[in-house]
Design a protein that fits this description.
The model is unreliable at 16-21 (pLDDT under 50). The strands form 2 sheets. This protein has a two-stranded antiparallel sheet with strand order 1-2. Strands 3-4 form a two-stranded antiparallel sheet. The protein has 133 residues and is of the alpha+beta class. The chain has helices spanning 5-22, 32-51, 86-106, and strands at residues 61-66, 76-81, 121-125, 128-132. The chain is globular. A hairpin with a 2-residue loop joins strand 3 and strand 4 (128-132).
């Protein structure tokens, strides 16, 4: 082996070892995109559950804060009726809000600090709950 090949071989091996250790992807650590997708799916499930509710003379319209803004408070209010499993909905919303708050902290998410308007009243029109702001 020529004398100048040995240092080149050593440097090449060291560089390969360094790049392979740096590019190691820890599959146990979700990426921003994966966590955001999970939150989106959870939110869609919550919205689907709430959308199956109908109002009539035997049910009551209600609303709940959905999401967790980085400055505090919900992003919006979700309307539902007592025709669905309310405990399941409330638990799912609480879980989602906690996960979004953790996501915001972990990824240093920022937003405006405007508060979402809370509805002042709710009524049932044509079997649909309608919020008034």
């Amino acid at each position: 082996m020529k004398p100048y090949f040995k240092p080149i071989l050593v440097v090449t091996c060291v560089m390969l070892l360094m790049t392979s250790s740096c590019s190691s992807n820890d599959n146990n650590t979700p990426t921003y995109e994966i966590e955001l997708e999970k939150l989106s799916l959870l939110k869609a499930e919550i919205e689907t559950l709430a959308s199956t509710s109908v109002c009539d003379g035997t049910t009551e319209c209600k609303f709940i804060g959905l999401g967790s803004k980085p400055c505090g408070g919900p992003w919006s209010y979700l309307v539902y009726t007592t025709s669905i499993d309310v405990d399941k909905l409330k638990a799912a919303v609480e879980d989602y809000n906690q996960k979004e708050a953790a996501f915001n902290g972990k990824w240093e998410i920022v937003s405006d600090c405007a508060l979402a308007l809370q509805p002042i009243s709710i009524s049932c029109e044509n079997n649909t709950c309608v919020l008034t702001y």
